[in-house]
Design brief:
It contains 14 helices and 13 strands. Strand 12 and strand 13 form a beta hairpin. The protein has a 7-stranded mixed beta sheet with strand order 2-8-7-6-5-3-4, with helices on both faces. About 40% of the residues lie in helices and about 20% in strands.
């Protein structure tokens, strides 16, 4: 098996830097279940303050952050609205339904990744004993690497509030959105009651997410965290990595975005590849004809890791290339050169 040299599979594959490892080794710890791990408390407070929220809770993963949020917002038999390809609906094993008896109500995405306001409103159920009670609108930013328009977010969350719904943002890569738009992340988070932040996507931490929001919702989420097996002890060692990431790895996301654009421009020169211009650090590539599998095999043999098989808008499988702090400009140039070699031989 060929070892991966240049790993574009995800921004979750990064290794902790030497500085991050030192911060972890030197972290002051306590017992988080007793509420006395000072490094965890600093991380929760720092991210809550950065996003303009009252409180935060450190959890093991983005999936756990989203699930505890859904449980905090909704009771058994209640319903949440989300996009048909939203991570919390499609990619988290249906945990809200499976573990929380919460009914998902998916609505289709528009070509730009948004949800039509009319579709959201039509999905909200009347107060009728025949229906689940609609309690929550869950949105995502970035969505498949796209930055969602803040004007649309304001309209969608405003619609939710008029109908008495809570609002949750899956903000796994929301710092990418803020950097890409040169915006204050607190402005992006402001319309939402809860926001989940992933520390291991793009920010370079080895593990962990933080759910921030209104104090009562975060308190409920903390209680659900324990029920989901997320009670942690001397976890300040990991929280220290999150604090380091917050201090050192947010502004540098602009480098990842620039590398993604460089990769997209290089691939766009190859006629057999169709490339969607990236907003942030995700590049979606469609390979023409029947060459997708052979191209993927060739890249693997070259030591280039990618993920593939994502359905595109035309039903054709797409490759997803992700840039991150362990992928530099030289790795991007090697990937472009490898693609050019493959298609020049195939042609």
């Amino acid at each position: 098996m060929t070892l991966i040299r240049d790993d574009f599979r995800s921004d979750t594959v990064t290794r902790p830097s030497a500085g991050m490892r030192r911060a972890m080794a030197e972290a002051e710890v306590g017992d988080d279940m007793f509420g006395d791990d000072p490094t965890v408390q600093r991380l929760e407070a720092a991210i809550a303050e950065r996003l303009g929220k009252a409180a935060g809770v450190f959890v093991s993963s983005g999936t756990q952050a989203n699930l505890t949020a859904l449980l905090a917002h909704c009771g058994r038999g209640d319903e949440y609205i989300a996009g048909m390809d939203a991570h919390c609906y499609v990619h988290e094993q249906g945990g809200a339904a499976w573990l929380g008896s919460i009914q998902p109500q998916p609505v289709p995405h528009q070509p730009d990744g948004t949800l039509a306001l009319g579709d959201i409103e039509a999905a909200i159920k009347e107060d009728d004993v025949h229906y689940s009670r609609t309690r929550l609108l869950a949105l995502e930013n970035t969505f498949h690497g796209r930055v969602m328009p803040q004007s649309w977010i304001g309209e969608a969350t405003g619609l939710a509030r008029r109908h008495g719904l809570g609002t949750h943002l899956d903000g796994a890569r929301v710092f990418n959105a803020a950097v890409a738009r040169n915006a204050d992340v607190a402005d992006i988070a402001r319309p939402f009651d809860t926001v989940s932040i992933c520390l291991s996507k793009g920010l370079g931490a080895p593990i962990g997410s933080v759910l921030v929001g209104e104090a009562d919702l975060v308190a409920r989420a903390r209680r659900y965290r324990k029920a989901l097996g997320g009670g942690m002890r001397q976890v300040g060692i990991l929280a220290a990595a999150g604090l380091y990431a917050l201090e050192h790895n947010v502004e540098r996301l602009a480098i990842d975005h620039a590398n993604a654009k460089r990769l997209a421009v290089g691939f766009a020169r190859i006629p057999e590849l169709t490339v969607a211009p990236p907003d942030t650090n995700l590049v979606w590539v469609t390979v023409s004809g029947a060459r997708s599998a052979a191209f993927s095999d060739f890249l693997a043999a070259e030591g280039i890791g990618i993920t593939g098989g994502y359905p595109g808008s035309t039903g054709v499988a797409q490759q997803r290339w992700v840039t991150h702090l362990d992928v530099d400009e030289a790795a991007v140039e090697r990937a472009i050169a490898a693609a050019e070699r493959f298609f020049s031989r195939a042609g």
